[in-house]
Task: structure prediction
Amino acid sequence: MSHLSKKCLAFRFLWGCLVVMATIALPGRAWAQNELFVSNTGGNSVTVYSRTANGNIAPTRTLSGAATGLAHPTGIVADTVNSELVVGNNFGQSVTVFGVSASGNTAPTRTLSGTATGIAFPAGVAVDTANNELFVANNGGASVTVYARTANGNASPLRTLSGASTGLFAPAGIALDTVNNELFVANNGDGTIRVFGRTASGNTAPTRILNVPSSSPFQISGVFVDNVNNELFVTNNGTYSVSVFSRTASGSTAPLRTVSGAATGFDNPFSVVVDSVNNELLVVNTGQNTGVASVTVYPRSASGNLAPIRALAGAATNLSLPTYLAVTTGTAPPRPLPPTLTKAFGAGSVIVNTPTTLTLSLANPNPSATLTGIAFTDPFPSGLVVATPNGLTTTCGGAIITATAGSSAVSLSGETFVVGASCAFTVNVVPTAVGPYTNTTGAITSNESGAGATASASFIAVAATPPPSPMQPAPTLQGWALWLLGATLLVVGGGVVVCSLGHD
Result:
C-alpha cells in the first residue's frame, strides 16, 4: 500500500485525502456540451452536473453500483473525442472505461486490471487523444504507466516511467501537454511538480522540477496545464491554495499569483481544472474540515482571497469525498477539415469500347488531426463501366476498394489518415457508346469531419476511324473525246436502248 493510501485510510472517516489530478476534456466529434463530472471516493460513484450548476443541486445523472466496478474512484477524464469516460479506481487497482453518457449501474465497456498492467493504487489518469495513449499515475507504485488507449484486461504497459532517477514518490495528479510533448506529475511524496518528455520511459530524470512554495510532503495534489494561456495550476491541500505558474517554471520560481484565504471557500482543495473557453477555474474540495464537500468556481485569472462565483455544495449534490473532476465546455472547436479528393482519366479522347484509366487521389489536409472512416462512392455516367479485367492498383492499404468488372461505380471505405497521409487507386474503365463523359463522385467523408467536396473529370469517346475507300480512276482524254464527238442513239421497239458511239 502507498504512503498516500495509508494516510488516506487513517483519515477515511475525517473526509479522507486521496490525491488526484484534474483535466479538462478534449473536444471532438462526440461533443458532450456543458457538463461537469466528479469522482466520489466516498460514494464509489461518478456524479454529473450541468457545467454551470450552483448551490444544492442534484446531479443530472449518477454512475454507481456493483456492475460499474467503481472502487474508490479517483482520476477521471471525459474523452469527448472517443465518447468515453475513463476512471481510475484506487482501491480497485483498475481503470474502468464507460460511454461518456453512462449512468446508473452500468458495466464498463473495458476494464484494465491485473498483475501484468503494473497498476498500483492508481490516482491520476490522462488520455492522449492525439497519440491514442492512456497514462496512469500509480500512487502505490512510484510510477507512471502508459498503455494503448483501448487497452483492456490484463494488458502490459507500452512503457513505464519509474526508478530512482525519476524521483517519483507517491505520484498523484498528472497532466499531459500534447502541444509541447510534456508530462507533468504532481509528486505528492515530496511536494514537487516533475516534468518529463511525453514519451519518457524507464529510469529517466525529469527535464525540470518545480518546487511549490510552502508545500510539505503529501500536500501537492492536482496539476493542470493551460496551453491557451501558457500557465500551470497546482493545488495544495496543506495551505488550502491554488498556485499559478508560468508553464515552463522550474526550481523555486515564485508563482504568478495564488488563490487562497477564507473567502475562497477552499476546504482541502484536491484537484483543479481550467475551462479556457469560459475563462473559469474549477476546484474540488473534499470538505475535510467542515464536512461539506464542494466544487468551487472562480474567474481563471483569480488571485488572492477571492470568493467563488459559483459553489456546488449540499446534500442534494451527493458529493462524497470528491477528489477529481472533468469539464466539457459548451462551445466545440471547429471540426477537422474533410479529406481532399481529386480524379483524372488517362486520356482526353478515347476510342469507344477501348479501356482507359481512372485515378482517384485522396489526402488528409489537417495539420494536427487524424481522420478515420474515410469513404466515398463514384457512380459512373451511363455508358461507362469498369473494364474486364479491372486492372486495379492502389496505395490505400487500409481501405476497402470495390471495383467490380462490368459495374457502373467504384467505391472506397474504411481508410484512416494520420497527419500528412495520402493515397490513390487506379482502375481501368471502358466507354460503351460514342459521346462526352463527365464523371462526378459523391462527397468524400470521414468520422471526424463529415462530408467534404466531390471530384469531377471528363473525356470524350469517339468512333473508330473507318478504312479509306478504293480510289476511282480519273477520266482519260479519250473518254472526254467520246462525249464531245457525240453518240448515236437508236431506239429499237419495246424501249430497248442501243447506244452506239462513233469515233475514228
